[in-house]
Amino acid sequence: MSERILRRGGCYVLSLLGMLSAHVVAQSGGDQQDFALLEHGRYLTVLADCAACHDDPYEHRPFAGGRTIETPFGKMVAPNITPDRATGIGAWTDAQFEATVRHGKLPGGQNVYPAMPFPYYTRMSAEDVRAIRAYLSTVVPVHQAVRPNRLPFPFKIRTLMLFWDALYFSYGTLKPNPTQSAEWNRGAYLVEGPGHCGACHTPKTLLGGDKADEALRGYALQGWFAPNLTDDRSRGLSAWALQDIVDYLASGHNRFAAASGPMADEVTDSSSHMNSADLIAIAVYLKNQRGEQASAAPLSASDPVMTAGSAIYADLCSACHKPDGTGVPYLIPDLAGSASVASKEPTTLVRVVLEGAQSVATAKEPTGPAMPAYGWQLNDAEVAAVTTYIRNSWGHAAAAVTLSEVEQGRHRVVTASH
């Protein structure tokens, strides 16, 4: 049984716990206001995708912690956030929980590392964060001490976060933009606040802080490239209509793409459980984000690498993705309209060719097609050729994929398998 299926099971348990909490409130004489608070907190944990990091990856217990999170600075381990008093957050006060989530300060005064996206969660209101705490107080407490973080020197010195916070952290809730619609402002809150989309999709500085002037333009992490989410013509979601974004977030599939890798987990744990109004609001906000509108000329079809790549594509790829790269809507990704293919770095495309990919299966799209791996069949030069061809066909334009980029991708795949 795959980890993704088990994680999906964890989401069903999370939903069951939400219903159980309502039953507990009703049986204990709690009023409708209590239930509304718990339901609001439950939904916010979905929006914030708390399960992605905090669900126990080994015993599959909701929010018990223990998941390893890879960062450019070392490996972090997500803590236990169940109401266990000894190893979880059961002994914390509401104020301490809010300070951790919105201020990046632990109860003992230590700084939180931004692997926990408090720079985004700070944009939530104090009431929203306390609603999350109220909901977490109803889940099953798990006694589980979590392994310490494995960060090399000097990153393991938490006091250095004081300087990081000074550079990159701005405390405060997100203020509505009076020139925009209520729907746009709701989308802004979801994307910039609990959804913390920029944690993956916004380029980072050498110190790991967001490049604010490049928000949502794509970033490579954990061996994948989180694509450009702006309305950029050449690299972003310009070809996607509002409904395409809604379909993708709700089901993991649309007429262009299928979610795999970390995004498949996000769809499973979070966006597929959002209500339709919130999905539309996210789509409205993203379609309003302007990218850099970069333009470049594709490599010539007569280039030797393009010629070799074209032959490999015809032999191995065209049966599913068709000679014109259009795929099959809601089933086989469309390479011609893919933001991932057009990304400024070929990280994801190289990885998928080498390792294959399993797309997500959801209630709305229960078929999760998989692509086979070709890393065993193609050498590095051949992988570079076919990915270069894909990134310079059907309206795409990009620099040739280098042998070094393929070698790095193959190393990541081998490392991840051990």
Could you please describe the fold and organization of this structure?
- The protein is built from 18 helices and six strands.
- With 418 residues, the chain is mainly alpha-helical.
- It folds into two domains: 3-168, no CATH class; 196-418, Cytochrome Bc1 Complex, Chain D, domain 2 (Orthogonal Bundle).
- Helix 10 (242-251) packs across helix 12 (276-287).
- 44% of the residues are buried.
Biggest sheet strand order reads 1-2
Number of helices: 18
Count of the separate structural domains = 2
According to DSSP, the number of beta strands is: 6
CATH fold label of the largest domain? Cytochrome Bc1 Complex, Chain D, domain 2
Low-pLDDT segments, ≥5 res: 1-29
The biggest sheet, with number of strands, parallel, antiparallel or mixed sense and barrel status, is: 2 strands, antiparallel
Q: End-to-end distance, in Å? A: 18 Å
Helix content: 40-55%
Helix-strand string: HHHEEHHHHHHEEHHHHHHHEEHH
CATH homology group of the largest domain = Cytochrome c-like domain
Proportion of beta-strand residues: under 5%
| CATH class call of the largest domain | Mainly Alpha
CATH A-level architecture of the largest domain: Orthogonal Bundle
- Which outline best applies? globular
What's the mean pLDDT score? 88
* C-alpha-based Rg, rounded: 22 Å
Structural class: mainly alpha
